[in-house]
Task: inverse folding
């Protein structure tokens, strides 16, 4: 019986750890999105209404890739 309890506790700890990691990933994604929108705010606001969401997505994508490390050159 105690062995099942131990497995269940480990399973709950793993689930909590997964939820915590997901929360931090979501938080980081929100920070990147906010930084992209702030950096390109003038461009976004000057864009016609029907294209703003697209420009906002591009701005966020640019901000995400700016933080990514470039791939090592192939030799």
Result:
């Amino acid at each position: 019986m105690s062995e099942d309890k131990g497995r269940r506790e480990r399973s709950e700890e793993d689930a909590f750890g997964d939820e915590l990691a997901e929360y931090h990933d979501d938080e980081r994604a929100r920070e990147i999105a906010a930084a992209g929108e702030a950096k390109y705010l003038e461009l976004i606001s000057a864009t016609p209404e029907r294209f703003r969401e697209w420009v906002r997505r591009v701005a966020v994508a640019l901000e995400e890739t700016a933080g990514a490390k470039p791939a090592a050159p192939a030799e």
Summary: Residues 2-67 form one domain. The helical segments are 2-39, 41-46, 49-67. The mean pLDDT is 79.
